């Protein structure tokens, strides 16, 4: 059995991946809150932004953490199409969950459906990303820990959507984002602790790209997207601010008449 190191760079990758998960969760929650306060095209656009932020944050968290993953006795490569598919899949499934909450008239039913869908999407992203790993050996999983990681993903997603429906203040959203980031990170490392590798030493070249050739540049690009989107969302007026502006405009028009 090969020795697995989940933090080859020390605390750098776990902490950075947690930060990315928190940013994605904060953006997703804020955008969902904004969406629920609007209608029509504006609601749709906010929900798409929420889904892309959540999906990007979760994917970036996973692969930033994977930068610190090492297996003694074997190099590691990543299958590029499968890795990209894991990103697209994460965004699509999270989008389904967010839209279920954003457009359903039965909030409780939408919460359960959205939480289950989004949680399974997070879990599938993780294990699809792991399926993209190429090394000299065979990867196995502890089914109990796999099941626990999926449960954590579903509970975390449901809690995040509940927060989006019920929490409005910036402070509460921040706290919820920190909790969501911790839950996503816990899901990732629970899934990683389920991994075992039987190494078969070989001098053959592995197919795929190294983490630094592919994962690192893509993670940096997506991380930049999260930071840019954060600035846009931070500068966007809240529902209360829009209402106050509309009221002021109506008052001006009333005086003018």
From TrEMBL:
It comes from Streptomyces capoamus. Residues 9-198 form the MHYT domain. It comes from the Bacteria. The chain crosses the membrane at residues 15-33, 45-69, 81-103, 110-132, 144-164, 171-194, 214-235. GO terms for cellular component: membrane. This is Membrane protein. The keyword ATP-binding does not apply. Keywords: Membrane, Transmembrane, Transmembrane helix. The keyword Transport does not apply.
């Amino acid at each position: 059995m090969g020795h697995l190191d989940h933090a080859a760079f020390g605390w750098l990758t776990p902490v950075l991946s947690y930060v990315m998960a928190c940013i994605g969760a904060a953006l997703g929650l804020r955008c969902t809150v904004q969406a629920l306060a609007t209608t029509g095209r504006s609601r749709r656009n906010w929900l798409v932004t929420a889904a892309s932020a959540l999906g990007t944050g979760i994917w970036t968290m996973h692969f930033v953490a994977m930068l610190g993953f090492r297996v003694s006795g074997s190099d590691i490569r990543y299958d590029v199409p499968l890795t990209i598919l894991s990103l697209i899949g994460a965004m699509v499934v999270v989008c389904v969950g967010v839209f279920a909450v954003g457009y359903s008239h039965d909030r409780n039913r939408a919460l359960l459906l959205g939480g289950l869908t989004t949680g399974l999407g997070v879990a599938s992203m993780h294990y699809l990303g792991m399926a993209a790993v190429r090394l000299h050996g065979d990867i196995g999983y502890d089914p109990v820990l796999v099941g626990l990681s999926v449960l954590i993903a579903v509970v975390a997603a449901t809690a995040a959507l509940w927060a989006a429906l019920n929490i409005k203040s910036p402070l509460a959203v921040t706290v919820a984002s920190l909790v969501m980031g911790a839950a996503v990170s816990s899901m990732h490392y629970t899934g990683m602790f389920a991994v075992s590798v039987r190494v078969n030493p070989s001098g053959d070249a592995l197919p795929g790209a190294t983490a630094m050739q592919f994962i690192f540049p893509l993670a940096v690009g997506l991380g930049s997207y999260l930071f840019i989107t954060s600035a846009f969302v931070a500068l966007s007026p809240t529902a209360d601010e829009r209402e106050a502006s509309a009221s002021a405009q109506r008052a001006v028009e009333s005086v003018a008449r």
